[in-house]
Amino acid sequence: MSLLEQIRTCHRWDPAAYRPFIIDGISYGYMSAALAGRLSDFPAVFTVEPGQVTLSAGLRDFAGRSEAVAETVMRLTESGDLPKWRGEDFPVVRRWGDAPVMAIDRCAAAPSGSGASVSMSTGLQSAMASL
Prior knowledge:
The chain has 4 helices and 6 strands; from the N terminus they run H-E-E-H-E-E-H-E-E-H. It is of the alpha+beta class. Strands 2-1-4-3 form a 4-stranded mixed β-sheet. The chain has a two-stranded antiparallel ribbon with strand order 5-6.
């Protein structure tokens, strides 16, 4: 892909096609509307509304959030809605150095829009996979 093609791809991004991913009232990134639609199948973990996806308020700590999201991600990998499970947990943070609010498998870090604290998966900062 030429540099000009890459620039054009970046300029095609449509914010209306993405939903904020909210944990404790704070946005941790954006995910595709298609992924948001699939998450509506997991109401104990996510509240999906037209304008945002919120992690369940009942999931209050790192371990509880990580476990509930891992179960959901595993089901989505089994159905083919997410790439292959990697077994590599990334901490979800808003900014480098912040305490993580949960961990998420590498296969879901970018599609979920979560701000995983590793350079190879920038979540919100990268063009996210659409389903």
